[in-house]
Design goal:
There is one protein chain. The chain is an alpha+beta fold and about 350 residues long. It is built from 14 helices and ten strands. The radius of gyration is 25 Å and the shape is elongated. The protein binds a DNA duplex (11 and 11 nucleotides) through helix 2, helix 3, helix 6, helix 8 and helix 9.
DNA sequence: AAGGCGGGGTC
DNA sequence: GACCCAGCCTT
């Protein structure tokens, strides 16, 4: 695989986490890049390292501030797990970042891939980091028909990558494989004509690139109907922290009623009475927004926002909701659905 | 082994 | 629309 390494050294992107061997920084970069493109994660990495430059600063972080830093990046359990893992390092590893694959995998949120990436890049250990790029590259080079998303398939690819890894420069090898997948061996239109290993690529030789990687089945999406009630009382509004085992865990949003079917305008207004702490009077003004469509991997959220101003609030009964100033909304981590709504329909203060 | 968990880019 | 991204955790 010498051609691959040479290609990598000539063509690799200049990325901030490639200027360090600091295991903490490599770890942060790897977690940010889980199921996330470099272009999307880069800015998050920079502000994350600036705010939390080392594991001890992260270990003493506040969860709400951490979630706010992670806002918009998705897969929010990663942020929670980072905090848990940082505290593990401080408490179980005496503040010193673990240096073996086995110990790295003890950290919350660190699986086979991330452990191998940190071990190889920071500690020069011969651990093969097998991610989506590597599945694609290897399945094409060797024309492997085994599905990559089964236990058996994953084992096979892990074994193959382990056999191929350059034991002298494992970190460079791992990154070269991934960089090849990210820059040339693309999912849709791979750039085989300039690929450094095209002469060794079985699927290129047989014109069967498009068949790889083989995957079986895809989950289908479910529809959910969200009705948010956005209260605008003078300078204040009301938000709730999402605490159930569901999407957007630990993020904030507006008081919510969820239905399995679409509601009529009349039903949306009628549902207001489910909030016992909210009393509409003759002075109350109500407006229903257009539908917001928010697509996630496995579900589609169809949301409307009901703007309510001039209502009375029974604060003794409003124990599940948090009253905040509208100007403080930015301090709370919220899903993109909510920030998109607020960009389009800002809350007015007076 | 299967399902849950985001948001955005690309074709 | 469908697919995919430097995956991991829970059940």
């Amino acid at each position: 695989m010498l051609q691959l390494i040479e290609w990598y050294n000539r063509n690799k992107r200049k990325l901030p986490w490639r200027n360090t061997n600091d295991a903490y920084k490599i770890w942060i970069s790897e977690v940010i890049l889980q199921q996330t493109r470099v272009a999307q994660g880069l800015a998050y990495y920079l502000k994350f390292i600036e705010r939390f430059p080392d594991v001890s600063s992260l270990a003493s972080a506040n969860i709400d501030e951490l979630m706010r830093l992670w806002q918009g990046l998705g897969y929010y359990s990663r942020a929670k797990n980072l905090l848990t893992a940082a505290r593990q390092v401080v408490e179980q590893f005496d503040g010193k970042f673990p240096e073996t694959v086995m110990d790295l995998k003890k950290l919350k949120g660190v699986g086979d891939y991330t452990a191998a990436a940190v071990a190889s890049i920071s500690f020069n250990l011969p651990a093969a980091a097998v991610d989506g790029n590597v599945y694609r590259v290897l399945s094409r080079i060797y024309a492997i028909d085994e599905p990559v998303n089964t236990t058996k398939g994953k084992q096979m690819f892990q074994q193959l990558a382990t056999k191929l890894i350059d034991k002298k420069n494992p970190g460079t090898f791992n990154q070269a494989m991934m960089e090849l997948g990210a820059l040339l061996c693309l999912p849709k239109k791979p750039l085989c004509h300039i690929c450094p290993v095209n002469e060794k690529c079985l699927s290129f030789a047989s014109g069967s690139i498009a068949r790889y990687p083989v995957k079986n089945k895809k989950p289908k999406q479910k529809k959910r109907y969200f009705y948010y009630y956005v209260i605008n009382n003078k300078n204040n509004t009301f938000i709730c922290k999402r605490i159930s085992r569901d999407i957007w865990h630990n993020l904030y949003n507006f008081p919510l009623i969820e239905e399995s079917r679409m509601l009529t305008g009349e039903q949306i207004l009628s549902a207001i009475k489910k909030f016992s702490w909210l009393k509409c009077t003759e002075k109350t003004a109500i407006g229903i927004s257009e539908e917001f469509r928010h697509v996630l991997t496995h579900q589609v959220i169809l949301a409307r926002f009901v703007r309510i101003s001039g209502a009375d609030i029974d604060k003794t009964a409003a124990d599940k909701v948090l009253e905040i100033e509208i100007s403080a909304l930015d301090n709370y981590a919220m899903p993109r659905l909510i920030t998109r709504y607020l960009e389009k329909h800002p809350l007015a203060t007076r």
